[in-house]
Amino acid sequence: MSSQPFFQLRPELQLQERDSQAGTSFTDDIEIVSSASASASASTSASASASQEPYTGLPQQDIVASKHGAATLTLTLTENERYLVERLPVPNIFDQIDQQQQQSPSMVNATIDTQTSPGSNKVLINDNKTLFIWTLPSNHQQQSYANGFSSDEENNHITKISLHDNYDDTTTNNVDQQTDNCFPICQLTWPITIDPSTQSFVNNNDINSGILIYYPSNDILTYYQDIESIDNLKLSNNLKSSLSLYQSIKLGLNKSENEKIKLILNTEPSGIIISTSLNNVFFITLRDSMGKSNLKIKQKLYHQNFRSKTNFILSHILPKSLLNFSLNRNLTNNIVSLKNGPILGRGERLFYMTTSMGHFQSWKLQNSLSLHSIKIVDVNIYDDILNSLQDLYPFANGTLRILDSHPINITSDDNNTNTMVQMLLSSIYNYETNETYYILSTIIINIITNEVTIFSTYRLNTYTSTLSEDFKYKFPKNIYSNQNETANNNNNNNNNNNVISIMISFPNAIVLTQISSKLDPSFTLKRKWEDIISLNDQNINIWGVPSLDNNGKDLYVLTKKFGIIKIHLKEENIEAINDNISFIKSHIDQAIYFTNSNSIDTIQFNLPNDITINTSKDNIESIESDLLTSMNEILFPQDNKFIPTSSSSSYSSLDTQQQDNNNNNNNRFLLLNLQIRLNYYKNLLDFTQINFNDKISQKVKFTLISNYETLNCSLHLMKFLYQDDKNRKYLQQQWIKYLNSQNENEYNLLINKIDQFPKIFINFIYALLFATQQVQQKQEQNFMNNSSIANLLITTIYHSVLEEGENEVKLTQFNMDSNNDQSILPLPWFINIKLLKSINEILFNLKFSYDAEYTDLQQEQQQQEENLKDLSLSLVKTLYYTFNKLKNWVMIDPTERITLEKVFELNEIYSSNHLNWNHILCQLNENIESLKITEYYTDLESLIETLSSSKTKILDIDQLYMKYLTKFAYPFAKTLFLYLINNRELETLYSSPLTNTHTEEAQLFLTSYKDYLQQFFYQMKKDNKFGNVSWIHDVLTNNYKDAMVTLNTISKPNELLDTNTLHLNIAKLSGMVDASNDDSIEIDELNYNNNNNNNNNNNHVHNENMETLNEIQNKLDLIDGMKDIIDGIKTNRYKLNDKFINTELNKPYFQKLLSILQNDNKTIEFNELIEMYSMLNSWQSIYFGMRLLAFSSAVYYVDFESKTILESMLWRRCILLNSVDEFIQSEEKGILIISPFIIYYKNILKMNYIIIKISIHHI
């Protein structure tokens, strides 16, 4: 059993990382790594991990992955209407490279060559020791690899080349020492076989690409005509005999400046372009114009020997801090972009180069021995871009840096062939926000006049992170478009789309946007579509620079841990969806349907921190609408492609026998469907909490959580009902029976009408309880049936709704504290009269049926008692949470909500039962749990009752009293006092409930306890409550005056005669003691003055007490009169006057009053006593009536008119005591009649004399 009264957060399921067989070890020799071994390793991993893969609802793929990404099937990571992100199958080469990196850490160069291989893309990965090359499977091959890495026998291997070997005689012999500090650069080249007429590849898969390897350690560039020639070197075992298969040249770089190659660009059929760390650019030919191998540095195209005018000005006008920033980022004129243009003819191709300071050149490359390359364009675009930005972004001046450029095939209306269009990516830095803004600029360059025109400028909105120095040399790079770069020829424009997709790669993200495919001025005014694919930068380590396929739609990203990630653009419907899809909605859906163990480590679905969400009302409402739309697509999945559904009509059309035969399948389907939807719904909640928790309204969060609780409850209900348990078979039957009575079935309810589930479920529980009670009225109470119903309620309400919904999601995840709910929120669906009545009822049914059944069976009784404890505890927690939720909801708007009929009924349930809930727990020896629950929910009344019943069960009960008094202060003390008073534990009330009062802590407790008791009685006196006990506290605290006043106040008619007598006598004594403590009063004024006709005492007291004492004395006189009547009638001293015996004043009135005095021993009203005296047959009774009327009428607030009536009544009845004739004839009788009045007036004169004497004394 849980020891916590509130709902504990359950631990999240931990995804286990799959391990695979380690890859083969490195060797220094060249070898062919067979895919068979990779497949065997992958198969082992598959069998080990298949059972661990949780079902996510996505189409299942037999993914075989090693620890670092080796897989045999394509895996979809995410997808929307615009793009598809996949993880491609890769060999376990990544594990091998990672192992070598751990042994000898060094840099890694990696790329996917999409341009040089005929009909296929090749992957190159090398560190400073080894180069790996393999062919990337084509699209149709990526879908099935059951028996190996590739189905193509030619590509069914990985070429492994040792970079230790150096075949140039001029190379330094100590290669090993240099290898650890050097980083070879490898680049594929075109195959030797090309069509001499078209300068394009021969379509023959048997041919092989060549390769260039640059060794920085010795400045050697080596060219192999084809990869097989390297294998031939290995096979021949005679290096000298194979020298004809390769060529090497020494580049002659500036070693004094430690100049190294940074970039190699394949510009075939012309040759290759290399740029160096000193920003020199060389054109190197591989072949002559006849196609014969000819490795040669033909021309130096660019060397940095200038600074732009802008740089010079900046260095003089910027402050030092800004100048340092500019020097680091801008004033170094680095080469940032080398890009190919279209092939112009035999051995000719365009080439574009851009520097960070905006120097742009375009060259016509020629591999002819007699012709030099021609510079077509040579402009500086830095100032043009700066001028286009600095009006809107003044901080661009001094922070602008060109990052990359890309040729774009855009046509204009005049179809001008003398212009070229480039897309430039630049960055500017905002010091105030510490953000970097990335700018896309479309520029038009006139190749005749070298004039530059800025056509459009667009700032990226989804990425603003500042790049660290580690990424400067490679990111952000390559503005990829969906155009084939070899077709970027204005004369061969086949682009029919109105837009061109652009992809910009950053270290941890790919940003996608669009530009117009035509020079349309209106496009710059349109809202640009922009999206971002964020990689998990904690897990992703990108190798190399992403590569774009020849089709212009597939971008390949090579990563260390997760292999190859492919981003595919869906160009077929790009225009149709351009304005119809929401960026937020797209990312919500991706997070929902693709957050699983396969993609969560790769793709970051949460919105990047760089994105600033517009918090305007319209935008927030749009986000809320997207969230609710995604929610409904999960709740009602009829058209949801990610959630399996079946036909409702086919289900409902089955006859009864067929339904029985298919029940198991239907139930399994519903369970699967609900589990999938619940998993997706959790993803929705996670995404909402992380990205929008502080932005969306409480109402939307309430709706999301409420529907989650509904979905979770329905899943738990189905799981519970369809477990193989004989006791649950009855509940299952009742469930189906109830659905049939509502003309409903499970499929329709759970798939199409999930919003109606709460109402149907609650009514089912209510009907179930009623039906069970009907059965049990005819039979004995059945504890097992009640246990099953209790288990059902605990599973569906306590666990699925309260624990997993309210506690884990609402309170913990969304931090929606119950006390902070806004007034617009309704009551949750589970706070329902029928449901809470059912839970309350089953709790008592459990206890009653247990007590009735288990009396003699000791062993079975012990087992069931533990079961009863668990069930009762969970039910009590459920009841307390729901009623506490109701209380908090009412307190938000008590004036309106407290009057609701539903609230009134629920409060009645709580007030009538909450003490009994804890009585049950205490009877089950769960006193500690009861204390925890009542403490947590501040049910002080139950808390104190549990404490009182736990004195013999809890050893440190005193500590608990001290703890609760410290925690709850006066409210706890007040409730404790009320409990002690109601249970007549007055001795404990006036001392304390502690058993040991000798400790220091106990003394502190007693101090607070007495102060609170004083405060309690003070408040009670103001409210005229508990005077029958507060006077004792007054006496004990020597507050005699208050005791006198209180006792006098509580002595009222209709109280017991003896009680009133006691209270009034104590009041009289208290008043006298209080007067004796007053030094201003003489002692002789307190002496009793006895009167022969009266046993009552009159005290000379202080003016403040005199009135109260007189009132007390008068009340005592009144009680004496009542006792006098009782005694007189009992001793026949008084009898009812004969004149009243046969009148209505006898039985209906006199006898009723007499019964109250004699039988009930209670006091009667003042006027009733006067009337009783007047009806007796004794002149003394007339006298007592007159005296009481004269001296005590003021005490009982008898008004003048009533007093006059009573006096008249006494006179009349006095005269009528005897007949008139007897009065005239007998002088004695006349004397008898007059005697009461003589005595009456004599006492009046004596009382007035006493009053005058006391008054003169105090003048």
TrEMBL record:
Keywords: Nucleus, Transport
GO molecular function ontology, one term from the record: structural constituent of nuclear pore
Record-linked SUPFAM superfamilies: Nucleoporin domain
Keyword Transport part of the UniProt annotation: yes
Top-level taxonomic group: Eukaryota
Keyword Nucleus attributed: yes
Subcellular location: Nucleus
Protein name per the record: Nucleoporin Nup133/Nup155-like N-terminal domain-containing protein
Species of origin: Naumovozyma dairenensis (strain ATCC 10597 / BCRC 20456 / CBS 421 / NBRC 0211 / NRRL Y-12639) (Saccharomyces dairenensis)
